[in-house]
Amino acid sequence: MPKICFNFHCYRDIPLYADLCNLYLADNRFDFTIGHLINNDQQTKHAQFEQVHTYFLEVEGLEAELGDLADEIATKFLYSVWLKSAEVITIEHRLGTKNCLQHHVVNQRFCSECEPKLSDINAIYDISDNCQQCFGHKKLQDYELGFKQQDICDVVDKIVQGKEVCLGETANQIYLSLNSINLTNPIQDFENQARPLQQILFTHPQVITSSFIVNEQQALALSSFEKPFIKLAPNKNLDAISEHEKQHLIASYYDVTFADSRLLIKIAALLKHKGINWLFINKPNITKTSNTLRVTWLDSAWVQTTTLSDISIEAPLPRHDDNRYLQYDVSYKKNVLSCHIDKHAEITSTSHIASKPLAGIDAAICAMHSGLLSTGCITSAKGFFEATSTLKKLACIYFSSQQSSSVITQNEQGDINSFLQLPILPQNGVELIQELTSSDKNTIFKKYNDAFPDTVTLVSEFNLAPNERLDSLQAFMAYAALIVLPTEEISSSGHISPHLLSQELANKFHALAQTYQGNNAPRIDFPLCAINSDDDFSVHNRSINWRKTLASLMSFKLAGANPAILAFGFFDSFTDYLSNWIDHLEQQQGIDAVVLAGSDFSYEVLANRLCIRLGKNYPLVVNRQFDLDGANIAIGGMYLAKRRR
Fold it and tell me: What predicted TM-score, i.e. pTM, was given to this entire model?
């Protein structure tokens, strides 16, 4: 009889897959063996340096029986955002064992067995009814407790009537409404430099493209069993959207998700039956039993923007016994590095981060260290962090709205240096105009001022938030948006709101770039310039001449260039410059791989254009084990070669 193996290759450890392997091990229909391997995927010259978790089931049986089993396994192993690939192969010898796999707690609250019953409005199946496959009835969250079918119908009726519904206790409340849910204060948001995106719960996945611009991988991720939030732009096709959508989907982006609990599945099914395809939802980032998952697409796979879950990994000896960064507590014991989320601490926000800026290039170094740690290609002796011989010479591109953005390098001897710091921009539009009029680009600015006086007025009224990073790509994009976008896109009154955030302008600018469907765009200038610093301890010696970049955008706008092609050109040209600079570093010291990290890689046009260019010549390291900005800084800080005060 043939022997076959079901392989599930994953970017992360997936407790659900381990649990399913254990369940099949106890299944007496066949003689199963199982296993979990962690391999470094470095089979090709330009393969990513990344850990790949492989869960496998081995079984022997008749061909007809194995065909039915394959269909069953495909149904039970729900798709995960961390699944790289799955395959069924014939084998001659088994590698697995009869030992159960160790794994973290499985928080799956529904499965292929009970989810169809929960979403069937005609089925007599309560959210507390038993499921012997996933035992989701035992994992109800606090806000779900006590709900019967009639209670759920009452909730749906209130939503349909236009009322805002609150589920759960004060600390873990979930809000639902057909109208936008405003739980923030504009003044406080401005001080915090961030305004959370409105969250959307989509009830009718099959028609999501009528309301939002969704590609294939985003639709697949939304349908995964993790049910992450994904930042999506609303569909602006006026022929395809309803009046309700025209009135309410007015922002550049929304955090969109599908129902991720038994109660929300029931509510979504009833709303769908009533013709409601989506509604606003507000969920807390962290609760007693669950954490919000937000992901973005970077280098052909998903990565978490900021992790809100505890992490434990085997790791080499760090330089420090522990580290604290934001709500992350990191410690090391018996070859295991543990990152614990303090659920009582302030949730990650730019205000909290800005109050604890890391010096110089420390954040970029932390991101590089944690990126290396996630590959498994490292060793450590007495706390000295060292990559293997195949991964010593590095570049790290760290772009963040939360810490200093820079490009750093590490040579074969382990010496780390700054190649580039993003430009430190003026705090407000008045200072920016003064800089432009006193620069060698003042002729272009005068012509621009004559042609677009209303735009220059808006620029003069704009202020970056008091504690905002002035050397971030987000701030750079905000000023570019003021120059490129039509004035009506920025303000309907002709004046800037005193609480307009750079985040909102950057989102408008990026959303405009995403509307451009071509591949060629005007060449925007991003020339390097020297940094003349009076600070003897400054680690940066070069940056980008932002005056020439903005003047370049002004020149193309004066020539009548389409705003969308200019927005796209900003990212396309910037990533081309970055790629050329990395090539220059390759000639100087050699580059084994490039680490990509930082919250600004959630801008997909930037991420996609850079990966297209760099991925042709260099392995790219993306930290899928941790995140882009948060836990990776806390964990990387354990290996930071710096004395604690």
Answer: 0.92
